[in-house]
């Protein structure tokens, strides 16, 4: 056997118990040959022979008892926001599996305070502030300043709400933030005695806390933690689905400093926040010019393309989504994040400039606006393959899904809403029928709408298998199965975290499945997702990942 | 801080196209405007004459008529606090609510700052389009909510309506809100007169019987000295058509005076403190409010001109 020396790099062949390619033409294999970060060929040691006979190669058999899949893709999260929350201790009603340990759910007030005390006792620096994230009144009851003082009185304690829109602090924290009774006046949403800051009152505290949390050393630490989180979930591609959410240049600089290096086992597709940027750039036209120039900043791992982000209605976790009839149980109304006319103007500009538009839509009326605008744009200037994508996809109607299909749109869903909020929104949101139909993904698949899943971390855990598990089983945190007709098959759920996630970001030619010529990005699983009980999907151990041919094991840690 | 009264804080809201930017542009080019700290959504939309600009950075523009414009970026609360901290340089803070915000929620910012005195919400209503908007599937709740929660409604774009179409629009708005309606007359309404009217109504909405009438307001610059007695005479004779007048003028002895006319009573007081003298000098002029949409302000103008001391 002659090995020709062409100066090409050596080939590595990864063998596996099974390779699940997510490529329907060749769905399964046992070996993947990789060179220079790309897949040369998928098959078996036998079928790879034409390559192996010609070129120097090694066979890496370390995964012979494991499953290889294309690396997972989360097409919608916000690293700069996650970096802030990841500096905090998770103290929440849900289980959160993190690289440094699993945080068990805390669902009563007693347990909440016990855990808070434990966290404080375990801190080395007696004066350091303790930040927690995940408090929620429905689970943990009303908590006020004196109650926290009684449990932890000697260090500043800041309890950040699950929704991120309110905080409760102790006396020491008020002192630390230099907030006095006088400085709050009679603010209706910043209560000195309760230590409670919410809605418009939140800034009274956050203006003191943000500089602390955004200080370079802490922000960098947060970004580092996000790298671990993303790796831990088995990701090899992320979508930063609103670069410019705080400050575009700062976010880009942070990402470049922290992620644009060989220690990072993923790439980030950067999608500009056209709404936020238009507020600082005076007009949509000027924003377009700025966004047009962003690809000049591309590096190997950080890439802008012809995708932009727009918004219609308010946050799902805050019940600010816009609903059609019959609205909310309590009669309140949601909000628009952009005036509908302004959304339409921006969408038209980007549509006619050839951009692929991602629209944050949480309620069915937010979705309706996106569909009306898409229909108008298709009438004025028809486009094929435009990837107009509904992001989040909280509430919808079956007819809207059909219409989305007719107009050529895609869905990128946060199906975890159903798991965490399904029961709660049935009781105190929108009633059972609509709450049970949060994340109407079965209909999307039946209609043929390309459907991806995302975490919008920390709106959901950055664990694609966990999101797939919700989509397949539709089980809420209370164990209720909601609208089983909308369950996805395991295959469709796996597609939604691989090839379809690549598709909505316009990366399907590079990533999301394993075939000759694609990036050699893989996730190494201990079990075959097709061979287990679908209720165990979320518990499949992840050994590590392979990013562009380089192996990145997940190092087991004990928190 | 105790040496300065709390700064009045007024919110100007209304859906897209209601004329918020037009109003603000008028204010910024008005040399007699009070010194206003203005929080705007978008610098791009406002039109500031370069010769008026004293200082400028990304988020703040200082004008030579004493106004400070501040752009709303990340934290509205921080911007409000920043302007409140400059209270010694200002007479009033005006927040331009975004077209999709709930202006009543924004009031919380003023409650949260002891330097500020929470004031009224003024909602601008586009007479031409409001009824369409109030039935639009996407914004009907929002547009109605903005009208229902206003302390004062300023009806705009009346000049674009057929004259016979105005009353039905005005009547329809009354079915949503009993807040007083003010409409701009041929002369553009000044911000000063609007603020005066808004504060007046916010103080008196319950006691006045004419709240369901449309009101018009008018600003008299009062650049020359005026006779106190003659002003009293004019107001007592014209009072049937006027409900309110307020403002600063210089009397025949060159004393700076505050005129207040309400419920048929005229009160004229001399400014004593240098601080109020300074404030008054910057917001000179008189504002008149009438429930009669056809009130003859040009006749009043002639009368006032004849009061020159």
Protein described:
The complex is a heterodimer of chains A (559) and B (309). With 559 residues, chain A is α/β, with parallel strands linked by helices. Chain A has three domains: 1-65 and 511-559, Urease, subunit C, domain 1 (Roll); 79-213, Diaminopimelate Epimerase, Chain A, domain 1 (Roll); 216-510, Alpha-Beta Barrel (TIM Barrel), CATH 3.20.20.140. Chain A is built from 21 helices and 24 strands. In chain A, α9 (216-232) packs across α10 and α14 runs parallel beside α15 (398-407). Chain B folds into two domains: 7-215, P-loop containing nucleotide triphosphate hydrolases (Rossmann fold, 3-Layer(aba) Sandwich), CATH 3.40.50.300; 221-305, no CATH class. Chain B has a 14-stranded mixed β-sheet with strand order 3-4-5-2-6-1-7-8-9-10-14-11-12-13, sandwiched between helices. Residues 204-213 of chain B have low confidence and may be disordered. At the A-B interface, α7, α8, α13 and α14 of A face α2, α4 and α6 of B.
